[in-house]
Amino acid sequence: MKKYFVYFSVLSVLLVFGQALTSCISDGDETISLEFANAKKMIVGRWKLSAFDKDGSKQSPKKFPFSNWKVVDTELTFYDDGTYYDSSDGGKKPHRWRLGPDGDNDSKPYYGDIYLEDYEFDINSLGPGRWILGFDDDDNDGKPTWILSFDKDDSEIVEPEPEPEPETEERYLVSSIKRAVKSNSYNRASYYLFDYDDRGRILTIQSKEGYPKNISFSYDDEKSAMIVKDIEWPNDLKGMQAQISDGKIVSVYAPNNQITWEFSYDSGKKEYLQSVVRITENEKKTCCTLNWNKENMESINTKNYNYEYWESEKNNTNLDLNYFIWEHCELDGMIFGDDIACFEPFALYGKKSKNLVIPLRYGLEAWKTNEYYGKGSVKVTRNQNDLPTEIVYTNIDLHGATLTLTIEYQKKTVLK
Fold it and tell me: Cα separation of 371 and 378, whole Å?
């Protein structure tokens, strides 16, 4: 696109021209000197959006990235430190702007573009009171699709109050888990790797020989939603959205099969999950209820499981280690069907059990008798932060197998 950088004051031209005509230089030559304006200095200030045209016709943008910009209502205030503020998003959040080479040069005209954040705008013209920008949304083979006109507002600029620095804290988050079960007759292991965002929320889990399979999440903060961005299996859970309130899932919607689940928590502190209701177009029924005792999940009505816990050992990591100790907790599977896990390992169903679970279907007393399993034991190794790094259970089945959970952590600064 052909662009013109237009700015030199008529008065300046006349003055310089007059001086050239009336001045005598020793060698007899006459010189006319035109000083070009500094583009960066011209842009600094407040600009009001006065026209917003597409192909010569005024209309609302569709693909334009700054879709909240409105004629007359939108003001952009530019500062010489490379930041600008946009009234369309409240005018309190700093954005980045920059010019190309010669944008801060007093002796050369500027023929380059301006970048607002990562978006490139053509400078069609720039004068002391009017600024015209072009933006290409790839509809017209490189020609600017949108033409934006701004008028300079020379009223006093009040420096915006900076947004307060976000409060952060350092946390130790589980980065990996190895689950190994070994006996005289078999030896198998599962591996899990975890990644988090800047708020300490789970982004991805990669797994080998275990559940949940590879899965990733995204977040819609405006809707307080957690979304299953991708999942290796089952594919119909991709796009599933969990509504989050006070750190707990209150509902889940699976768009591929149009099923909704609603979660109820105890009426006291509303911390412990009590029941889950499954809702389809033709049916609404309770798919599971949970019972609690001494801050631990004691049983789930839909399975003949009675959970026992090692009450001297805390379940105190950011993940629910009980899922990885006993893969038969299966709360996710009971809710959504199939042998899967989406939310259970991340302690998103309210407050998790306080203690470490004993990985047996038949309870603590059976575990301690020679008749069934021999006398089992647990040994937990903790680091200087009182977080478990290794958990070893012996005699977890009729083969006398040993279960070892090895946990590693990453130190991460996260937003509170």
Answer: 19
What stretches of 319-391 show up as alpha helix (H) in DSSP?
Answer: 321-325, 331-336, 363-367
Higher pLDDT, 351 or 366: 351
Residues 76, 258: Cα–Cα separation, whole Å: 44
SS3 of residue 388 by DSSP: strand
Asked whether the bond before 61 is cis by omega within 30 degrees of 0, the reply is no
> What tokens appear for 325 in the block?
């100790």
Dihedral (CA of 338, 341, 347, 353) sign: positive
According to DSSP, the residues that pair with 171 across neighbouring strands are 412
Q: CA-to-CA distance for 54 and 64, rounded, in angstroms?
A: 10
**What does the alpha-carbon distance between residue 304 and residue 363 come to, in Å, rounded to a whole number?**
11
Token readout for 383 is 């680091």
Site of tokens 């197998």: 401
Strands 241-245, 225-231: pairing kind: antiparallel
Which of 73, 55, 131 lies closest to 97 in space, CA to CA?
Answer: 131
Grouping H, G, I as helix, E, B as strand and the rest as coil, residue 134 is strand
> Are 330 and 343 in contact, with CB atoms under 8 Å apart?
no
In this predicted structure, the answer to whether residue 268 has a pLDDT above a threshold of 80 is no
pTM of the model: 0.62
Half-sphere exposure of 405 (CA within 13 A, CB side): 27
The beta strand positions in 95-214, using DSSP E, are: 95-99, 113-116, 119-126, 130-135, 146-153, 168-182, 187-196, 202-208
Q: Of the candidates 242, 411, 403, which has an alpha carbon nearest to the alpha carbon of residue 335? A: 242
